[in-house]
Amino acid sequence: MLNIKDVSLTFNEDTPDEKKALQGIDLELNKGEFVTVIGSNGAGKSTLMNVVSGSLHPDVGDVFINDQNVVHLPEYKRSKMIGRVFQDPMAGTAPTMTIEENLAMAYARNKKRRLVPGVTKKRKDYFREYLESLNLGLEDRLNAKVGLLSGGERQALSLLMATFTEPHILLLDEHTAALDPSRAELITEITADVVGKFELTTMMVTHNMQQALDLGDRLFMMDKGEIIFDVKGEEKQNLTIKNLLDEFQRIRGKQIESDRAVLG
Amino acid sequence: MFIALFGAVESGVIYAIMALGVYLSFRVLDFPDLTVDGSFVTGAGITGVLIVNGTPPVLATLIGALAGFIAGCITGILHTAGKINALLSGILMMIALYSINLRFMGQPTVSLLNESTLVSQIESLWASTGIDSALNGMLNVFELDRVPTTWAILIMMAILTLAIKFLLDYFLKTEIGLAIRATGDNQKMIRSLSANTNFLIIIGIGLSNGLVALSGALIGQHGGFANLNMGIGMIVIGLASVIIGEALFGKKTITRVTLAVIGGAIIYRVVVTVALRVDYLSIQSSDLKLITAILVIAALVTPKILQARKDKKRRQAKRAALMEQQKESEASA
């Protein structure tokens, strides 16, 4: 489903600030696979996501989605196949527009936008049905401006907007990191729900190791632009935070630097 | 005075089309587009020259509007493909249009006084209906010295402006329209929902300037001339209309704002007319730009001051009520 072949990307090449963000990344995700990605700050997790989504273009290497090479496609064309939720709860929705208008824009994602009304009676019923699954009461506030919602509600809405057209790939970039613990838990639950329901091929970046262990059926650990640890299936289910830390020490010969990565 | 006010409302209705264009760029796309000063003249100038050369007025007006659309698209391309700052790309296009307009017009002023224009055609068609005498008959109640010579322009232009308003309302609720609004609201988000924001900005700024040029074409035919300098300060007049309209009539929904913008454009014209006619103020027409600037500043600042004052009063009232309660409980204890 998602196939990344030998992708490298260096920022500020040949300057003192040179940073090898990705170094020869190779990976293959099968349909329905849910991988969580961990690593300390600057390990290249977000860069990897951005290379898949098209907001960054790699120096070399190819990205295949459904066996189609998308590495030269601009971001907006790839988004037909990719659903995304960002870390900032404000980033995934348009605040001055209503809930139903936001949903209508997401609904049109994998279609050609036309000069027909975005919100119709039929679509409203459809939106309402999906919103009910969130259990946040948003289905009764279709005409409310999204800017009036709380961060948690907005993030839940973003998640719904990213998934309900069943994209080929779902990218979650620390999408619970900016929320308080109870809201983060709610979003985590909803994430597990929708990913399971639509069997979405998903890549989730997180700083929270427990979350990385709880969710998904595969796990990548990244460091210095490389995937240093890739585990799936039963082995992944039996992992603990201590295993992860030991594994990092074994591979890199030192401890993980970021406290945030450990405690977060 | 009545005739002057009548004239103010009449031109206000035509300027409202320009204000709707400014609303589209300034508010919907959040793009402060200064192309307006140039594209207004483009509309008036090209339409004027075409009419003088014998093009049917309706066709000439449409071509004028199309020219504005193209000018706007170029501003959009400068900003998106050229990655030039929004304000600067508008200024560059405005300056370029000054020369381009003069090229088209051949001379700084094109007179339409003896030509058959859209306005004169509407008037002559209208004259045969006899609606004027009926409407003026109703005005007799007020015992005015003079009555308007024709209601044709006011009524027909009001119908046109409202038609454009409803089309714009509809457009902004279509799938493409929603994407344009989101482009002005949260570009990152709508790009992640597979919208080509560059294309939407180009189309949006194009449409905005198409409306501005249409308004210019009609104002030119209404006034009987097109002048190279008639667009100076047009963007500020457009902003004034949008901001005054929003402040007075509210901005809750799209339908409401577009109506408010039309109202703002008419009120702006009325205020200017009244200011010019109050003798003891001795305001000259050259002072109008200053008045416009002051109007915009007032419309921007006043609502905030009023809101701050309202909030302060509310807090004070709550505080006073709380003190009162404490005193009472102390007294009873």
Automatic annotation (TrEMBL), chain A:
From which domain of life does this come?
Bacteria
A GO molecular-function annotation: ATP binding
- Gene3D superfamilies per the UniProt record, alphabetical: P-loop containing nucleotide triphosphate hydrolases
Q: Which residues form the ABC transporter domain?
A: 2-249
**Transmembrane residue ranges:** none
The compartments listed are:
Cell membrane
**How does the UniProt record describe the way this protein sits in the membrane?**
Peripheral membrane protein
Could you confirm whether the keyword Translocase appears in this record?
Answer: no
Record key words, sorted: ATP-binding, Cell membrane, Membrane, Nucleotide-binding, Transport
Coarsely, its chief localization is membrane
Q: InterPro entries under this entry? A: AAA+_ATPase, ABC_transporter-like_ATP-bd, ABC_transporter-like_CS, ABC_transporter_ATP-bind, P-loop_NTPase
Database matches in SUPFAM superfamilies: P-loop containing nucleoside triphosphate hydrolases
One cellular-component annotation, GO? plasma membrane
Q: Say yes or no: keyword Nucleotidyltransferase present.
A: no
The entry's protein name is Putative ABC transport system ATP-binding protein
Protein source organism: Tenuibacillus multivorans
Instruction: Provide the organism lineage as a comma list.
Output: Bacteria, Bacillati, Bacillota, Bacilli, Bacillales
TrEMBL record, chain B:
Statement: the UniProt record of this protein carries the keyword Transmembrane helix: yes
The record's GO CC annotations read: plasma membrane
- A family per Pfam: BPD_transp_2
In terms of superkingdom, the source organism counts as Bacteria
Q: Which InterPro entries match?
A: ABC_transp_permease (IPR001851)
Q: What keywords is this UniProt entry annotated with?
A: Cell membrane, Membrane, Transmembrane, Transmembrane helix
Keyword Transmembrane helix recorded:
yes
Q: What kind of membrane protein is this, topologically?
A: Multi-pass membrane protein
GO molecular function ontology, one term from the record: transmembrane transporter activity
- Give the subcellular location: Cell membrane
Kindly list the residue ranges recorded as spanning the membrane: 12-29, 58-78, 85-104, 151-172, 193-219, 225-245, 257-276, 288-306
Instruction: Give the protein name, as stated in the record.
Output: Putative ABC transport system permease protein
